[in-house]
Batch of 2 targets.
Target 1
Amino acid sequence: KKIRVGVVFGGRSGEHEVSLASAQSVMRQINPEKYDIVPIGITKEGAWVRGADPTKLLEAGTPVALPEGTAEGTAHVVALSGDPTLQSLIATEEEDQSAIDVIFPVTHGTFGEDGALQGLLEMANVAYVGCGVLGSALGMDKEKMKLIFQQVGLPVGPFTVFRRNEWERAPETILDKIEQELGYPTFVKPANLGSSVGINKAHNREELIHAIKVAAEYDRKIVVEKGINCREFECAVLGNDEPIVSVVGEVIPSNEFYDYRAKYIDNKSQIVIPADIPQETAEQIRKMAIQAFIALDLSGLSRIDFFLNKDTGEVLINEVNTLPGFTQVSMYAMLWEASGIPYPELIDRLIELALERHEDRQ
Ligand code: ADP
Ligand code: MG
Ligand code: MG
């Protein structure tokens, strides 16, 4: 009997479109001998649409939102509130009453990558690919993530955190503190986001004020970091309690930093795999990646990102991404390809890890 995999994509996230592309890749490359696919789209409003076709949505041109119920004959919208058990939501009525064996969330960012969807799946007792509730939540919160890194001795760059209400109450105090503690340039980020959405680099006070206002539109918590003159490295981790780590890759952004444009739009950023760095540095990065994976209680997959400070030679950990871009040409997949695990096998392993973890927790 084939394993039924519900691929969940879209969602109430700034990374909705990125997710459609990841879902399309998974659905095209998954081994059809072994798996049956049930596509489950989530609209930008949060409605669940069964049978939605990410390929068609992408062809319609990005940015595109999932329509209310798709043209597909079998598709219909099930508002979660009207249907308390996920099992009944994801069992197809028409052709097959059998339930989904495992969910493959390829939802990036808010509500998909941050533990919310994972919590829902836990409650419904469904196996799912990737990190659990805690790991997902920690991986999404750039403040808490750094606190744990510091706790286990992983080097992070200088940063400060404040809330939107503090900013509104005493902006001058916050600006002075940032200038004294961090100086320029600084990076201003919404604490819980990804794909560089809402992130700006500030070179002076005027830009800093603007950057804080932008970040505050996305999140009630804002992280400001000292700008590091750096090269950027990433590596991929795969596994549960005995994770393995890929070779190290380098990202060379086409813009001043790796912003949303450089990531998804202008197609000029370069990826170098394996990275052109001394072997000791690569080993150090790989070791830190595993350490971070364990420290944050991650499982399944994660891409762990680093900065190499060009001025000091120091390696800093930047962040983890618990549901990294997952197309065939995304860094995560390419790192494994270069490490001897082709994309279809990667999907296979991730599903096995999900089932294993679910089994462990019964
Ligand atoms: P996201 O989760 O949105 O990818 P990141 O924290 O990785 O957010 O920041 C996005 C990009 O911004 C990084 O890949 C890097 O190019 C740049 N960046 C972020 N923080 C810093 C920093 N402290 N110093 C230098 N560049 C940074
Ligand atoms: Mg990120
Ligand atoms: Mg990043």
Note: The chain is about 35% helix and 25% strand.
Target 2
Amino acid sequence: MGARTTSRHGQAKASKIEKYLMKDIANRIVTVGDPQRARIMAQQLDKILFEHTSHRGFLTITGMYQGVPLSIVAIGMGLSMMDFFVRETRMVVHGPLAIVRFGSCGSICDAMPGDVIIAESAFAISRNYEYFQQQQQGVGEPYVLSSLVKSDPELTRLLRDGMGMVGGRVVGGAVGNADSFYGSQGRLGDDFHDCNEGLVKRAREERGAVALEMESHMLFHLAQTSTGAQNDRPPSIRAACALLVFADRSGNSFIEPQVSARMVVEATKSVFDALVKFMPIQDGGLHPEPGSVWEGK
Ligand code: R1P
Ligand code: URA
């Protein structure tokens, strides 16, 4: 699994990187929701150099994969956790950042449990609190759909190519990033006035949505708005997202636990390889691609 650094030259470089990584997370990052998923993925690193669980529940595992530093960060659920993760990572890591979210979703297209969705773009689905205050007057819509933000095309292409090897269908499209697992994903129930009966249909018709989950738009939005080395430079963060279909929202079928466990194992190499191909190692991996067109901070 991947090349370990065995030459004297390689050893020297690795120890410099290792020293560096004891303080920081890497420039190539896989982010997941579930810490268990992070630990399964970490088994395919060639070497683990650093692990930290914060009291807020973030798990960071940093190691080497094919001689390249790579981090896996489990963030829990929801867009505010994605916001913490991206902003605080940007604060402490020098240089460009390549981030792949590897998560799960509910399919609202013909992709079935065990298939893979590639988020070519994402949009936010936000509960419109004013609507619920003013319900008697019926002001506005109960949910606001943002416009679409695209993923990084090159990183997405590499991710999609790799996912083709995993088994299951690979479906690309727009992903709805809801601010709740329940109301704003169109789940129906009697306990609250959610006014969400037509929401899934709306997401499909107005945004071409193929899946719903809870973090992708925030990741793409922060990548899009990240500043470069100078303000006139390209964004310093580039991001993509692959999602395992855990639920088919139309037929109400769910993935079997053993299938999801197997798919995580099989997809890990594709996710890691996409990051390594996208940002090949240069300068010992401490400052990837210095002086290249894509210059980070
Ligand atoms: C909901 O069960 C969680 O699963 C999805 C959603 O986005 C949400 O975080 O992603 P993860 O499997 O990455 O957590
Ligand atoms: N994650 C979500 O946010 N929704 C689903 O339906 C499945 C996974």
Note: Helices lie at 8-21, 35-42, 79-92, 129-133, 153-163, 199-207, 216-225, 257-278.
